[in-house]
Amino acid sequence: MSNATQSLASTRITSLLDANSFVEIGKSVTARSTDFNMTEKKAPSDGVITGYGVIDGNLVYVYSQDASVLNGTVGEMHAKKISALYDLAIKTGAPVIGLVDCAGMRLQEATDALEAFGGIYFKQTMASGMIPQITAVFGTCGGGMAVVPALTDFTFIEAKKGKMFVNSPNALDGNCTEKCDTAAADYQSKETGLIDAVESEEEILAEIRQLVSLLPSNFEDNDSFAECTDDLNRACEDIAACAGDTSIALSRIADNGIFFETKRDYGKDVVTGLLRVNGMTVGAVANRTEVYDVEGEKTEEFDGTLSARGARKAAGFVKFCDAFDIPVLTLTNVTGFNATVCSEKVMAKSIGELVHAFASATVPKVNVIIGKAYGTAYVAMNSKSVGADIVYAWDNAEIGMMDASMAAKIMYPGSEASVINEKAAEYRELQSSVESAAARGYVDTVIAPADTRKYVIGAFEMLFTKREDRPAKKHGTV
């Protein structure tokens, strides 16, 4: 039974958790500072409600900042309450969910507040890779507080009132809120790579509940299994038509058609997210060339290349999956790397991060080539050479160095069109066909698109007991 005081902060908690499951911790804690007439200001719970409860029976720890108490500012005891919550979460192996609505650091407490706030960073870092961390921004999340979502695994932001920034828009030279609101949910979602979804408050709380049900409680206890009520041998009859928008294709593979997409507005040429296959949670990374809305209308189109943002997005997601022992599925359909001056600045670094993430991950890894797989972009997308355990390819896939016609033009410069066409056909058969790749062992099985679900399920069942030793070292540096 909840004993939280009734406020917007506590209402968010009760809306998030199973009914009557919240137990508040530290309700009597209040500000310790007496400077600048702080004794005259009431600070119940020091502006943050902390405690634990359950989501669909799963234990979670929650803190919710109360903007009605000193504008939700972070003081010494406020920060110490959050740190103490992390201590409990690490000890018991359960996720931490932060509901943020904060006006920043409490000026009246100065270095005491800063010291305690640094403790939150430290606890988050210790918890990273041990327990899932989720943040939802409902109001302001500025300055040092903006680092908190950056240290968590998933972040949601309220569409209208949510604001996140390190430096406010008006503090940026040559900028202002009217010119470019860098604190707005839309900007943060599309440009920073920190935001998983921009939605209403009610939608965010529902999304967090669904996310928690998909995630393991911690890195040691993978309790994210559920009974599968879908047909394990169900054919995906229309999946070939979904090859452009792989968020839809992944929903066709998933149990009961449920796919939870992450980082939805960032690096949209790559899809990342979570789904269940045979009741087991699997992380998915897929190239995307088209985006369709809920009405089935095409809203965006990409050229089939891999962008630097897409690579960074995928790399971070694969690292998360590996940390929590979540198997990884990839759908590969890529023709090369995005070629722009802007992307070239960070392209090599981003691709390096992606290759490192796939190569260092020891979880079961399955790759399905659903279209074109050209050049080193294909190699980086969980190819067998960088560690995929099983590689399937649709029977219409193309795998090779580059498009056959382009290869022929390079090998036979200045030749007539008839010669180019002849050599392109020959190159396509000998070097770019799926049969050629399978003959060399780069593809394990050529499959019909409709059979994708049952082959993926079978592969992950076979790989369930996978164990893989790696060279002893502290950690990589990429």
UniProtKB/TrEMBL annotation:
Superkingdom, natural source: Bacteria
Residue ranges of every copy of the CoA carboxyltransferase C-terminal domain listed in the record: 231-462
GO molecular function, one term: transferase activity
Gene3D superfamilies xrefs: 2-enoyl-CoA Hydratase, Chain A, domain 1 (3.90.226.10)
Keyword Transferase (UniProt): yes
Keyword terms: Transferase
Pfam families listed in its UniProt record: Carboxyl_trans
Keyword Membrane recorded: no
Domain CoA carboxyltransferase N-terminal: residue ranges: 1-169
Name of the protein: Carboxyl transferase domain-containing protein
Origin species: Blautia intestinihominis
Lineage: Bacteria, Bacillati, Bacillota, Clostridia, Lachnospirales
